[in-house]
Amino acid sequence: MPRSPQEFRVPANGMELTVYEWPGEQPTVLLCHATGFHARIWDQVIAGLPGRHCIAFDARGHGRSSKPEPPYSWRDLGADIAALADSLSLKSSIGVGHSLGGHSVTIGAALRPSAFSALVLLDPAILSRDAYHGQLWEEAAFVRKRRNQWASPDEMFERFHNRRPFDTWNAQVLRDYCDYALRPDGAGFVLACPPDVEVSIFQNNQAVDSNIWAEISTVEIPVHVVRAGFQDPSHLMTGSLTTPGLAASFRRGKDTLLPEHSHFIPMEAPELSAKFIADAVGLL
């Protein structure tokens, strides 16, 4: 039977973050999700880590965590991970991040070095140094068109399972996404990550404040950067968001390119993602 996590809330930078904890052996694995998702998107990856102590959380603005009004700074999301590490007394954990989560956990590792012993970054949204020019990413406007009203998680699953980019996902991951992506609202449901929050995060991905190359130079622990190699020209978000030379910029970086996978690596390949994490544990 799948392990069931304990759910609780912890303070972080004047907010509360919802945390899910799966008991098990050390070192702890801390999993950080992408923009618009939630902690339970990691359930199938965690299923591939039997007996391991795992923690996943809803980032600010997402899932069941506090939702301050926009704008949303990427640096603040990273600072939340440092605060979470303090609240949970993390020591020598494995930090895992996808997309925005990879950017955030890198900040967290720079701010709280003793909390992390290795990082696994799954197509992290870390751009080249010169990409942080301070202009809003206007293409983020596509998020405003995202459907917000739903009758049920089942309706969401049926609508998404044969559509890009969800048709390449592991079916159970998509089921987990739909089950926790919504919150009750009247007779139906709305997105647990409100569209205005998601828009604000995407718009600020090239903000000057989002440039973390100074922090990257201070990270001493092993860092495995896993990059997506596949892109569907018909879908904006399937291509890699990781600058190709990122791994070489870490002092102990390792680079892996997955030609057959899109930006949604942990959704398409949860077992492979779990293997990368287990490999990081084995290095310690």
**Shape from CA axes?**
globular
**Gap from first CA to last CA:** 29 Å
Q: Give the overall average pLDDT.
A: 95
Estimate the strand proportion. Answer: 15-25%
- Report the uncertain regions: none
What is the highest CATH level, the class? Alpha Beta
Q: What oligomeric state best describes the polypeptide chains here? A: single chain
Predict the CATH topology.
Rossmann fold
The CATH superfamily bears the name Alpha/Beta hydrolase fold, catalytic domain
Helicity range of the residues? 25-40%
Number of helices: 10
Q: How many discrete domains?
A: 1
Whole-angstrom Rg:
17 Å
Number of strands: 11
Counting helices, strands and paired strands, the structural category is alpha/beta
CATH architecture: 3-Layer(aba) Sandwich
Largest sheet: 8 strands, mixed
What series of H and E elements makes up the topology? EEEHEHEHEEHHEEHHEHEHH
Strand order of the largest sheet: 1-2-4-3-5-6-10-11
What does this structure look like?
This protein has 284 residues and is α/β, with parallel strands linked by helices. It has one domain (6-144, 193-282): 3-Layer(aba) Sandwich (Rossmann fold), CATH 3.40.50. 30% of the residues lie in helices and 23% in strands. The strands form two sheets. It has an eight-stranded mixed beta sheet. It has a three-stranded antiparallel beta sheet with strand order 7-9-8. The protein starts with 5 loop residues before the first strand and ends with a helix. The relative contact order is 0.17.
Index terms:
284 residues; alpha/beta; Rossmann fold; eight-stranded mixed beta sheet; three-stranded antiparallel beta sheet; 11 strands; 23% strand
